[in-house]
Amino acid sequence: MEENVLQQDVQDVAQEHHLLFAKLLFHEKPVLCSADAYKEALEKRLGDIDLVSDGNLSMFAVKGYCTKMLNDAKEEVEVPAMLNMIEPLEFKLDAISDLEKSQYWDVENALEQLSNCQYGISVFDMMSIGLPYQKRMELMVHAVEAALEMYPDCIGTYMDCSGKFMTRDQILSVQDKDIVYRFINMYVNVRFFNIQGKEDEHVIDSIGAYALEYPDVQMHFHSLNPNHVVGYVYNVLSYQLEHDFPIESKDTIDGINQEGYMDQNIPWTCQYEKSLIQPIRDVLDICPKEFAAGNREI
Q: Which of 158, 174, 240, 264 is the right S-S partner for 23, CB 3.0 to 4.6 Å?
């Protein structure tokens, strides 16, 4: 991948994601699947569903995933989360930022594949921000997988919250894994940055957990194998998502040795702070002791 010089932008603050968007991408304009067919696919995964509207925007009320809201009379009522599918709209590679384009590690020839995609169908949630994040992950993982089953000609998915691109096969081939694994596989990108003017200094971070209103993971380091750190960041974020984010500032966690394995004899200290790389968001920063780079207060 061609190396571009990108600038840090501390003014680019992450937006709250009241809606989680997944865009299914196609070479040619697809025919929107029937709402009844998608409803049937969703019910196999999520239980009882009401079809609220049908047409260019299909809306589905997922009755087993309810959140509490205040009605016009200021009374607390339960409202089902909504899943939505929008008709095909034009998709252009120009809509993706240069920063996102520099971070496609999971798909071979990703930019070429994206440049050949001309249309996208969006799947997204509504009325779900009040759900526990575990339920919201379930909701969107199943919504995307069910949608992909409707469209065998779909090339892959693009996620607005992280810029992650994955092929249809990469998503549907891991349905035997747990929800955390599948959510990370779909939605979370782990990014790699060289620091200009600094020999062997890097930042590796995750992006995607912030869309659930939880911290991502970040390491600023030198003299470690970046491939090992990428796997480590994925593992730490998986642990956080699986265990309701138990790590607190000043906690120590197992670091990794030179072979890339987690080692309880290598304690690294954690601190919640703002990310170094945009979009600026909360991250769990891990200080790898003698391999740490930058100025730290830990």
A: 158
Beta strands in the chain, from DSSP E residues, in sequence order = 21-26, 49-53, 57-70, 76-86, 89-90, 119-126, 156-159, 165-167, 189-194, 201-207, 216-222, 252-256, 262-274, 282-287
pLDDT in tens, 101-148: 999 999 999 999 999 999 999 999 999 999 999 999 999 999 999 999
Round to whole Å and give the CA distance between 157 and 120: 9
Q: Is the pLDDT of residue 250 over 90?
A: yes
Instruction: List, for residues 155-178, the tens digit of each pLDDT value.
Output: 999 999 999 999 999 999 999 999
Residues 6 or more apart whose Cβ sits within 8 Å of residue 194: 3, 201, 202
Residue 2 pLDDT grade (very low, low, confident, very high; cuts 50, 70, 90): very low
- CA-wise closest residue to 241 among 137, 167, 95, 170: 137
Looking at residue 208, what DSSP letter applies? S
Q: Where are the domains of the chain?
A: 21-187, 190-291
Per-residue tokens: 184: 């990370």
Q: Residue 49 pairs with which residues in a beta bridge?
A: 62
Cβ atoms within 10 Å of 57's Cβ, excluding its own: 14
Q: What is the per-residue pLDDT across 187-204, written as a single tens digit (0 to 9) for each?
A: 999 999 998 878 789 999
- Contacts of 75 by beta carbon, 8 Å cutoff, 6+ apart: none
